[in-house]
Amino acid sequence: xxxxxxxxxxxxxxxxxxxFYLCAFAAMGILIYGILKRRKLWDxxxxxxEKIDWKASLKALFKRVFTQKTVRxxxxxxxxxxxxxxxxxxxxxxxxxxxLVAVEEYGHLLFGAEGENLIHKGLYFVVYEIFxxxxxxxxxxxxxxxxxxxxxxGRGDSVRYRQSDFFLVAAIFFIxxxxxxxxxxxxxxxxxxxxxxxxxxxxxxxxxRFLGVNETNVDTVHLTIWWxxxxxxxxxxxxxxxxxxxxxxxxxxxxxxVRREPGDMVPVxxxxxxxxxxxxxENIQDFSQRQLLSLDACVACGxxxxxxxxxEAGKPLSPRDVVQDIRSHFxxxxxxxxxxxxxxxxxxxxxxxxxxxxxxxxIIKAETLWSCTTCxxxxxxxxxxxxxxxxxxxxxxxxxxxxxxxxxxxxxLQKVQRSGNPWGLPVRERFNWAEGLNVPTVQSNPEFEVxxxxxxxxxxxxxxxxxxxxxxxxxxxxxxxxxxxxxxxRCTGEFARRMGDEFLFQESAxxxxxxLQKYKVKTIITHCPHCLNSLSKDxxxxxxxxxxxxxxQFLSKLIDKGKLKVDAKAAIKDDGSITxxxxxxxxxxxxxxxxxxxxxxAAAGKKALKEVARSGCQSSCCGAGGxxxxxxxxxxxxxxxxxxxxxxDTKAKTVAVSCPFCLTMMTDGVAAKTSEVKVKDIxxxxxxxxxxxxxxxx
Length: 698
Hints:
By secondary structure, this protein is mainly α. About 55% of the residues lie in helices and about 5% in strands.
């Protein structure tokens, strides 16, 4: 067993070895040069002080890279994800195997015993050969699949190909396959004992023998292919910073930086406004260094575009194209800006920007930016944490600052500033929804433990008011010590911030935080995921730290504690079937998936729920987020039409939602298709289940 081994540099003369190392160092030098050159371009962006959180970095790298979980998941591109995972896992094992060979080769410098194998022998060698052949085959199959896929790119694939991509993938495939050629020729040359250990290489040895390769001519063939393989590997290494392969470096770096969670936004200060004279992103250097880095992390795979509800609805938005078009613009403008800064001349930088196409208008159209619902589906599916949403919202901020928004969306912002709600209705009417219900306020119940945040929709929209009525009924039945702000509540400013009006949001937040501090609020429940996200993620940036729960979370706890009892048999009439639409800002952005489903099962039975394919964090947007609620789209142009069809295809009698925006959009969409299916908030379904026993007794 101990005699099982092989020579590392068999058939390689000293001159070839010297040239080999020279090429290796040259390739590494080009790689380092390319990375440093690219780093200088990223540095033209704003330095936001983003650092590496090593614990979070390792977690992100493990989840998104080393397990390939994000690549393999998703409703679409599952096959591509699996083959990418094959190629990645195969590559990693081959890389580790190469490192072990290096240990064997250079270990003599530390441990002596030159001429003898250190580790590359015996049982270790047996396991090594089998593993390397197996994972090399996995790697090659993955590369071959992508090569064939690229040859069939006319079939409507959403990947955005570049001219160099075919040769790049072909080179990756050649590296894997030529490795087996070398192995097969080595088996012939050394007359290897137990050649079946390298079973793929042995198969190639049989092919070479059939083609006339034998012990007399194998050395020449082996050395030739060894050089072809080596030069292709060095080309691969050197090309990393200059091709699509840059995503390997930029993506890993992007994941290592502190991750911006979905729904988070970076605040803008008045000092920044005074210093720059503008808000948001006007030119390429207005992006943060992290955002410019993420442009190179994007591999244009199209997963974001496949997941985008605006793209699906025919809107002029493709998250992939936004990132890639800005990247192309970055490649053109960044060297000019860098050169101007190198010479310390602001006028050169201004001239460079004047001569180049405009980021706004020429590269990215305004209608593209306004099409986004900020649902974060693009960010969720990106394996390398690229966030087109943050790019879009930062560019929206500039448009708002320039007064580029008009019509109903602009009017909704003006109404928030004037009346504290996007409808522009009087503040004195904000508490009218509670007439006849004896709802406690912070004045009437100053010793409250939980604040119920009503939100603008439930305050002024008659349909959504029924949701507030149901929640109040459930809170009363369970004996919760709660209160509301009454007319002192105003819009959180969530939609204003995501539309780009940062300072209107900050004004709203400051007013609300002042009121919340006045009444020493600690715990807040809300039935609106957008209010939930703003209160829990936006407000802490301005000193408003609260424990914020969605009403499905809070009601679930009440049921678990036995404070609410339901009768599932009488909860839903008709056939009792329910399908659930996950709101983007509840499931995807805030990770709340199980509680709504638990309430549905409690209210209607475990068999009542009919899931759709796109559920949980992979849900499809209703079309109202990001300020889209206030755009006057024609019914056949609205985002979310496909979602309505998907829900109706389940044949369920009730569509359950847990968001006021979703309730409005789904109600309109379902009503246009059928009158048999009802759309209800989960709290309404739960309240009906609690009322049912009383109806039976009567």
